[in-house]
């Protein structure tokens, strides 16, 4: 009996997917529940499993755009499972094995190669395959520079230009289409504005330097910058409610929780998985969530649920060396914080010039619901919390908290 495998329903708003890759070949036997293909929607990549064991008959091809319910393949469940190939060696077979003599194990020099003595010595020492060496000496002789060129540029013929003028069209993935559409929509439908500030990262860097080993030993994750920024943003979001809100028609939806989206560069494009209730997590909890989501993103294992529903976004262009940028809002959210590269700069402190590790931070926001006072106040609050990390314990000065001021 042949059973049909169709594109499953993967989300309310998703109508089509792309067949990214077949993991089994046509006519190959697939075990029950074995992954046979990868599909990609506009939001995530997911796997298709064999519902029953049998021989696979491929119908849809890699790169095809499929509708929900379209036929992907069929599985012949009546097909017999192939036997495991290979048998154990018998006693008689061992007698037929020829034992190599010691002299057989020595690699004989390539005596038929035309090369200068120096070139021949390098070939023997580096075990260079002469088939990949282009001879430029007289009478087709390999010289020293020919061997060095082959070692420095494996697979490239000397004198051949690396670049061409060829055009290579490549179909946009569903994920890239979605990214493009959402970025244009954000620019066209929001009154986006960006405000900047700078943060002295010295106090945070000192804490990381002092406690990173103990933190890793105690919690099993590294102490990174993201937990400090997420913690600071959560306090600021609870103080400046509109930065954590978004527009829904004529209503403003406010949130009493902080579902923080983190921008992650995945192999197929930018994704923004969500740390749920980040305001309730410890520093270690935030770091563990970041590692988990980033790992899933790099392996294309994020689910749709993990990428939807954020209330605020943090993006870190500093890991790529960005010094300053104006990040685009992740709609329907109303604000996004951009982290950047840490650079030592001369700063004026009490009339003296002091070199400090500084980071520019940027807040892009929707001016329709966030006023300038709130956007600037939010960013200043984040700056204060990061430059005084002890405030992250209670969200305010410990003495003020003790005195309930």
Beta-strand content bin = 15-25%
Portion of residues within helices:
25-40%
Q: Mean pLDDT score, rounded?
A: 85
SSE succession: EEEEEEEEHHHHEHHEEEEEEHEEEEHH
Please tell me the CATH architecture of the largest domain by its name: 2-Layer Sandwich
**Uncertain runs with pLDDT below 50, 5 residues or more?**
87-109
CATH topology of the largest domain: Chloramphenicol Acetyltransferase
Query: N-to-C terminal Cα separation, in Å?
Result: 75 Å
CATH superfamily of the largest domain: Chloramphenicol acetyltransferase-like domain
- The level 1 CATH classification of the largest domain is Alpha Beta
Biggest β-sheet: count, sense, barrel? 7 strands, mixed
Q: Give me the count of strands.
A: 19
Strand pairing plus helix content: what structural class? alpha+beta
Rg (C-alpha, Å): 30 Å
Count of spatially separate domains: 3
User: What sort of overall outline do the alpha carbons produce when their principal axes are compared?
Assistant: globular
Determine the number of helices (DSSP H or I, runs of at least 4 residues).
Answer: 9
Structural notes for this entry:
The chain has 405 residues and is α+β, with helices and mostly antiparallel strands. It folds into 3 domains: 2-76, RNA polymerase II/Efflux pump adaptor protein, barrel-sandwich hybrid domain (OB fold (Dihydrolipoamide Acetyltransferase, E2P)), CATH 2.40.50; 111-164, Dihydrolipoamide Transferase (Irregular), CATH 4.10.320; 191-402, Chloramphenicol Acetyltransferase, CATH 3.30.559.10. It contains 9 helices and 19 strands. The protein has helices at residues 91-95, 117-126, 144-152, 174-189, 202-219, 225-239, 283-298, 372-387, 398-402, and strands at 2-6, 16-22, 29-30, 35-40, 45-49, 54-58, 65-67, 71-76, 192-200, 246-248, 251-253, 260-262, 264-266, 269-271, 274-275, 312-316, 335-339, 342-349, 352-366. Strands 9, 12, 15, 16, 17, 18 and 19 form a 7-stranded mixed sheet that branches. Strands 1-8-6-3 form a 4-stranded antiparallel sheet, with no helix packed on it. β10 and β11 (251-253) form a beta hairpin. α2 (117-126) packs parallel to α3 (144-152), α6 packs across α7 (283-298) and α6 (225-239) packs across α8 (372-387).
